Amino acid sequence: MQQRRALLVDAFTETPLRGNAAGVVPDANGLSDRQLQAIATELGASETAFITSSATADRQIRYFTPTQEVDLCGHATIASHAALHEDGHIESGTHSLETNVGQLDIEIGTDDTVWMTQQDPDVTSLEADLDRLAAALGIETATLADVGADIPVARANTGLPWLMVPVNFLEHVGSIDPDMNAIERLSDEHDTVGVYAFSFDALEADSTLHARAFAPSAGVPEDPVTGTASGACGAYLRDVEAFDDEFPEEMRFEQGHFLERDGFVRVQVGDSIRVGGAATVSLDGSVKIPTTESDDIIEAWVCAR
Questions:
Q1: Catalytic: which of 14, 42, 47, 260?
Q2: Which tens digits make up the pLDDT trace of 229-286?
Q3: How far is residue 236's CA from residue 252's CA, in Å, rounded to a whole number?
């Protein structure tokens, strides 16, 4: 029975046990899809990143939730590159990354911020049924109608499609009590991975907005801090002309506070869409992997940092 190193890395935060935890397997070469899924299920993070060699890029990465593979994950990308950088395996600068949605550029800044360039944006405004959407989120229709008069519900995609839902005030974002079955049905109908509800009424003065993300169809009921949705939201805000003044060079999205996993995503919208943030390793250990023919449960042990 072989062993591989496995980490839990908290992304979009500098504080362990905050932000969004991602599993990271720095060397997944030679593992089968069944083994990758079993490891992700065992680690239990919303997504686990598996890093392998690539013939076309500096490295390849695949992402698995506890139940299925997904094509892209922002926080696991940030987490995995921060861990590789902390270990001294990669230096500051630009790196190429092969993913299921194509090759992406990853930049590690001199301040250790990891920046992920996402795909070209695709934003489509929708004539949404606000009563149904509000019921799915467990809030009053008026909380969506107020802000919906200025900016619409939309489907936005910079690698993974999300349903963008503006909410009028932070207290209503905080009081969301989602009906996961209803959100899953909405996600399926609009071909999105989930719902990203946000308000410009944020907790901190230098934050652009506060958000919550729900993706039950991907096996993630609520994601603490979401990189792909943040990039998609940045593209959406530019598309719907959400700001009266000049569009900001950089935005700061806060998320996870209602789960006690607060984190912050830096978002830049220009010729390309970039999301960035810090990350810190919270657990470092190894995972025992049975052969693909075995039905044995994978066992993991970890050491707290």
A1: 47
A2: 999 999 999 999 999 889 999 999 999 999 999 999 999 999 999 999 999 999 999 9
A3: 15
Angle at CA of residue 252, ends 249 and 254, nearest 5°: 165
Domains, the chain, ordered by start? 2-118+279-304 (3.10.310.10), 122-271 (3.10.310.10)
* Residue 166, strand partner residues: 198
Q: What is the mean pLDDT of the chain?
A: 95
Overall size of the chain counted in residues: 305
Instruction: Identify whether 47 is a catalytic site residue.
Output: yes
Q: Is residue 65 very low, low, confident or very high in pLDDT (cuts 50, 70, 90)?
A: very high
For residue 162, what are its two tokens?
A: 């999300």
Contact 49, 73 (CB under 8 A): yes
Taking alpha carbons only, the member of 202, 194, 192 closest to residue 168 is 202
Q: Give the span between the Cα atoms of 99 and 154, in whole angstroms.
A: 25
* Per-residue pLDDT at 109 exceeds 90: yes
Average pLDDT of the residues in 65-76: 96
Dist CA 61 CA 38 (whole Å): 17
- CB distance 234 to 269 below 8 Å: yes
Name the phi and psi angles at 43, rounded to 5: -70, -35
| The model scores a pTM over 0.90 | yes
User: CA angle at residue 267 from 266 to 271, to 5 degrees?
Assistant: 145
